[in-house]
Amino acid sequence: MTNKSHFKKIIIGAACFMMMATGIGMVAGQQSAFAATTSPASVQENVATASSAPEIDNVATVSSASAQKKASIIAVAKSLKGKVTYKFGVNNPAKLWFDCSSFTKYVFAKQGISLKWGTAAQSKQGTYVAKKNLQPGDLIFLSVSTPGKINHVGIYIGGGQFIHNTIGTSFNGLLISKVSDYSSRYITARRVG
């Protein structure tokens, strides 16, 4: 193979790579890979074209922003531990009195995500998530009274745990529990935002 033929294949490969990467929103950084195999004049043309092209979504940026938002949701929820009181059918942000779903509604609203009030309504928002694919910030829905009927919601915080607003014989407010402790009551999960 001649040097000229080899150089031509490198340029074609780099151009294909540039087109593929641009198609999935990865324009930034590819110019340096392209620059390694092209002349300075063509790099200048590509930089000018890329900067004048309409902006396209960057999947990595969106994912990073979403992860930051989810981390903030969890941080807000945890910061309210010891401050929130459980009251059935109540949504009183001024006094931090919530039921389980008004608590999730309040926490998600702090990050600009609008949830409806009520476990049944929230269980239809966003997209379905399989239990094995839970990610921090996902809503998990449980049955705590009528078997098989959604009537409780919490926020998955990672590590097999979730935070929820609940009441017990000696407890009232936010609790961090293991999902596995609720395996017989677990119904579904949703990803919103």
What is the number of E strands?
9
Rough shape? globular
Secondary-structure arrangement, i.e. CATH architecture of the largest domain:
Alpha-Beta Complex
Strand content: 15-25%
Major sheet summary line: 6 strands, antiparallel
What distance separates the N and C termini?
54 Å
- What is the mean predicted local confidence, pLDDT? 78
Nearest-angstrom radius of gyration? 25 Å
- Overall SS class: alpha+beta
CATH topology of the largest domain: endopeptidase fold (from Nostoc punctiforme)
Q: Output the number of helix runs.
A: 6
> How many domains, as an integer?
2
So what's the CATH class of the largest domain? Answer: Alpha Beta
Find the CATH superfamily of the largest domain.
Answer: endopeptidase domain like (from Nostoc punctiforme)
GO biological process, one term: proteolysis
Protein name: Cell wall-associated NlpC family hydrolase
Keywords: Hydrolase, Protease, Signal, Thiol protease
GO molecular function, one term: cysteine-type peptidase activity
